[in-house]
UniProtKB/TrEMBL annotation:
Protein name (Swiss-Prot/TrEMBL): DUF4199 domain-containing protein
Keyword set includes Membrane: yes
Membrane-spanning segments: 5-25, 37-54, 66-89, 143-165
Keyword terms, alphabetized: Membrane, Transmembrane, Transmembrane helix
């Protein structure tokens, strides 16, 4: 199991790094909304290795059988590789590559809220946003937020993959 988790975890981590880098270089002129969609799509694509890892374990290492619980654990461990890679990459991007990203993004959000919300609601949301801004200016919080996001998506994919791929040993 360990070899499968490490191999497919590394595949997922490499894939998410490549897709993140491609999105940065090719998507600079895109809107924040479209960049966000591309980011989530990158996460899902890199987590496809969860399915393939569980399938590989079932078919080649465990004589064609895997329980739902074992599949879920394998999937979560594979997801952890991609989650850590994405969290680290995001911190590197925000801290070193584009240190103005947070300020630019918050400026964009404020402008969007200003044009879409009534004045009273805007003031309330702006106050909430300012509190969040302080919280997410920390590299550790950025890492945790991005890693957790990938891990949650990985959990969902692990659940689905476990349900699809579970198979009892033949008697």
């Amino acid at each position: 199991m360990k070899n499968t988790v490490v191999r497919y975890g590394i595949y997922g981590a490499i894939t998410i790094c490549i897709l993140f880098t491609l999105a940065l270089t090719l998507g600079k002129s895109l809107s924040y909304s479209l960049q966000e969609v591309i980011g989530y799509a990158s996460m899902v694509v890199s987590l496809i290795f969860v399915f393939f890892g569980i399938k590989h374990y079932r078919d080649t290492e465990n004589n064609g059988a895997v329980s739902f619980g074992k599949a879920l654990i394998i999937g979560l461990l594979i997801s952890l590789f991609a989650a850590i890679a994405f969290g680290l990459l995001d911190v590197i991007y925000i801290k070193y590559i584009n240190p103005d990203f947070s300020a630019e993004y918050y400026g964009h959000i404020i402008e969007e809220m200003r044009t879409t919300l009534p004045e009273e609601e805007f003031k309330i949301k702006l106050s909430e946003l300012e509190t969040q801004k302080e919280l997410f200016s920390s590299p550790l919080m950025n890492f945790l937020l991005m890693s957790t996001t990938v891990l949650i998506i990985g959990f969902i994919i692990s659940l689905i993959s476990g349900l699809i791929l579970q198979r009892r040993p033949s008697q």
